[in-house]
Amino acid sequence: MKKNFNSRILGTAAASCVLGLTVSPRASAAISDEDFNALKSTVQQLQSERAQDKQQIQQLQQQLGETQSLATNAVEKADAVAQAQATPVRNALHNFTMVGDAEIQYAKTFGNNTHSGFLLADFAPIFLYRANDSILFEAGFDVMLQNGAEPVSGHDSGSSTSVGISFAQLDYLINDYVTFVGGYMLLPLGTYSERSAGFLNKMPDGPLGREFLPGAGAGAQLRGAFAVGESGQMITYSVYGANGPSSLDGLDGAGSLDLGGNVGLLNNGNTGNLHTAPSGGGRLGWFYPWAAHKDLEIGLSGQTGVWDDAGNHNWSAAVLDAALHLGPSFELKGEFINSWYGTSDVGTVHPWAVWTQAGYKLAGLNLDMPVINDIELVGRFDKENDAQGTSTDRYTAGFVYYLTNTLLLEGDYEWLHSRGPAALPSNEIILQMSYGF
Fold it and tell me: What torsion, rounded to 10 degrees, do the Cα atoms 221, 222, 224, 228 define?
């Protein structure tokens, strides 16, 4: 019975296999080429999307690394800033600078039996030291080289070098409108001493009449400026006290006036003024611009005080200065100098002078000529009277060739008409190389 049952099972299985072999080809034939290609396309699309997803994951991982690096740098910088802020910072760093100018000349003076020659006209360094935003010290020197003298005959022999201090002053900026100046300071009598001397002068020599004024003096000064409206107008001012002029020999004659001494330290080492009281002075100026590179400035300045040792006579001066710019190529400026002082021998002595100077840069002609565009034509007229018998009229024509903005070749010819016991030579020609640094 059991054997028959097993045989029945085996028979059934065999029949099933036969049926499977018979049906399977028919089911396979039911999948068409179109369905197969569609399935293949779907698989390929899934593979492409998977590759894109993998690429995006890599990009995100790279961006994450960059973000982490930036975050790390930001933290480091924040730590550095925090440490810097924890350390006290000064308003300004110490700053030491040397500027100035040097001039080399070739000159020929006519009418006094001299020959033409070369000379080191001047070496004028200026030292600037800034302690902070409010304190500045500045000092200027003039180094001159000239022939020495043989002691017996007095004939030129050897050479000698002189070093003179032109100014040494401390500047303290109290606020935007007031600056304190103290020391051996440039005096604001006119504008030439502060703005036009040395390299800034477009002539090889200075104008007549400046010898009637002290260029510097020992004292203290308050100066500043403030705006007028919103058009760029400015009012400038300065008020100062200084030791003032003194006497060369202790006398009070016309020839005893000394404008360059009385610096406060006597030759015996003591301190003090050579006369009874210091002098006082100041300048008031008005600056008016009406267009770019077009402006007018007018100033009035003066000083007065005793000059002789006994304090019996005053020395006074008044200066009217003006400067006009009509574009970047034209400049006209000048001063009228009027001084007077009392004496015991000739009464009141009244020296005076006037000078005016003009310059025109040929670049203003708008020519396509590089050499011509680097030339500035200059002219000057000056006149002085020393009130002691000598008067001089001078006419000057010259040029400035700008090799660079700091290296200048200057030349002029001067016609002089001088009369009196201290008359100047008739004519002079000067060539000068100037370098500002």
Answer: -130
